[in-house]
Amino acid sequence: MKSKTNIFLLISFLVAIILTGWLNYQAKNRIGDLSENKEQDHDFQVCNEDRITQYYGMDTDFEGGKRAIKNKIFPELEELNYKGSGLITFRFIVNCEGEIGRFRHKATDLDMEEMAISPANIEKIEGALLKLKNWNPASNDYNTYDSYYVLNFKIRNDKLVDIF
Amino acid sequence: MKKLFKILKLILATLLTGYSIVVIYMLLFSSPEKRYSFAANMQGSELSQKMFEILKFKDPENDRIYFEQSVPFNKRGYYEEGFMLLDKAVTLDPKMHLGYRGYMKLRFLRNFKGALADFDRLDSLTPGVIDTPWGEDIDFLRGESYYGLGDYQKASKHFKKSIENQGEDWADIQSFVYIGICEYEMGNLEAAINYYKKALEQSKYSVEAHLGLAKIYSEDGKKELAKSHLEKAEKYFNYKRNDPYSEYLNEIYKSDLAQVKTLNKST
């Protein structure tokens, strides 16, 4: 009888722990969270790994807005050959000091299927993005924060036609 | 003492079991509406996505679940995943979701032809109804799509239709602004001025209309008029059209004001 009580307690404890751990993990992890990859991200650091907000929550932006981004980097990227039509979407972090890094990308064609982009073109886009220095990090009245940012590169008939 | 410990162990085990049962019940067996609301409120978290998966398992033909599940993917730039879910919602209930998908193609993807195809299909499915995808007049969104394609004539036609649909007093003020831009692009400066002025009759804070007028007056050498509208555009700049998710096609920036200011000084 004694052992049955202990087994009941042990099992109920383990089930509760596993459920709580699972719930906590599922609630904490979000779509689009970008984990660090030292090899890919080099020395880019975020200020608080546990609090990286979304771009639309706290007005993260480049000085002069997306128009300024386009004006600055479009000329050096428009001559590249991109093969096909679709959208290359870059997601990256603007850290609390206004530095950018941890670049990840996805590309979709007009049917919303995955589209292949040459690594050389991706490298050139990242290189162009890294030249952008006037980022306004997410902020409120008290502090500045890390946040994600999304930038789209529109491709039509093998050429870059828009950045937004 | 041993008995007391045993009772305490049993109480603790019962409480823990009760907790687990409640959690499992909430995840798997509570009312679908409550679970749907919970998942929608936890938008973007993996827990929300898991809840949607559970709901879909039990109700695979429920279009609302696919629609709501798609939202965080699209907001965060994961369009392949987002549109896979949204396409399923459209398949299940085209009348309900075509408008939103068109809106997303227009504002998030700038896929203007794709957006128009969705708006036209929606329109054909709802004869006699003026659709309002995601709360905006369908002809306004068509106008914006044609504007994106650079077809100013068709864009202007649809913005005018949108004003007709909504009535002049209730129409989106940006309809007047967009017609002003389209007419300007087509070289019809008098018409452009008229529509910009109509926008300002609706609201004196329309920065886009002030800028449009300043540009036309400046190019026409009417420096004082241009200066006056530029000053108002600067004064009311915080009222400019913007959206935290995406850049509008006619969004204006301080650099636009600076450009017209320079133009006005040089003419």
TrEMBL record, chain A:
Q: Which UniProt keywords apply?
A: Membrane, Transmembrane, Transmembrane helix
Q: Where are the transmembrane segments?
A: 7-25
What is the protein name given in its UniProt record?
Answer: Uncharacterized protein
The organism's lineage is: Bacteria, Pseudomonadati, Bacteroidota, Flavobacteriia, Flavobacteriales
TrEMBL record, chain B:
State the taxonomy lineage: Bacteria, Pseudomonadati, Bacteroidota, Flavobacteriia, Flavobacteriales
Instruction: Answer whether the UniProt record assigns the keyword Transmembrane to this protein.
Output: yes
Quick check: keyword Transmembrane in the entry? yes
Highest taxon of the lineage:
Bacteria
Q: Which InterPro entries match?
A: TPR-like_helical_dom_sf, TPR_rpt, Ycf3
Question: What's the name of the protein?
Answer: Tetratricopeptide repeat protein
Question: TPR repeat boundaries?
Answer: 136-169, 173-206
Q: Which PROSITE patterns match?
A: TPR
TM segment ranges: 7-28
Source organism? Christiangramia sediminis
Q: Which SUPFAM superfamilies does the record match to this protein?
A: HCP-like
Q: Which UniProt keywords are present, listed alphabetically?
A: Membrane, Repeat, TPR repeat, Transmembrane, Transmembrane helix
